[in-house]
Amino acid sequence: MDDELLTTDEVAARLRATPRFVRRLVAERRITYVKVGRLVRFEEGAVTAYIEAHRVVPINRTEVSLNLRRAA
């Protein structure tokens, strides 16, 4: 475990989001965190994993058409 522990504000800065959004991720258990006493901290790897898990890749028009046909 060589990851540095980050604060809520540091994670918010990396996500370009507000600290409130990060606190909501914690409350909904959508991001991995570490409790240090009453403090909430995040491993750098957990933040990177969250970003990768929520990455949306582009698709081309053919794939869109196929997806729409399957849904119909």
Short account of what is shown:
This protein has helices at 8-15, 19-27, 44-53, 61-71, and strands at 5-6, 34-36, 39-43. With 72 residues, it is of the alpha+beta class.
Number of strands: 3
**Strand line-up in the sheet with most strands:** 1-3-2
Order of helices and strands: EHHEEHH
How many strands, which pairing sense, and closed or not: the largest β-sheet?
A: 3 strands, antiparallel
- Radius of gyration, in Å, reads 17 Å
Low-confidence sequence ranges? none
Helix content: 40-55%
Shape category: elongated
Structural class of the secondary elements?
alpha+beta
Beta-strand share of residues: 5-15%
Quote the average pLDDT: 92
Terminal Cα span: 48 Å
Descriptive overview:
By secondary structure, this protein is of the alpha+beta class. It contains four helices and three strands, in the order βααββαα. It has a three-stranded antiparallel beta sheet with strand order 1-3-2. It is elongated. The mean pLDDT is 92.
Q: Which tags fit this structure?
A:
72 residues; alpha+beta; 14% strand; elongated; 3-stranded antiparallel sheet
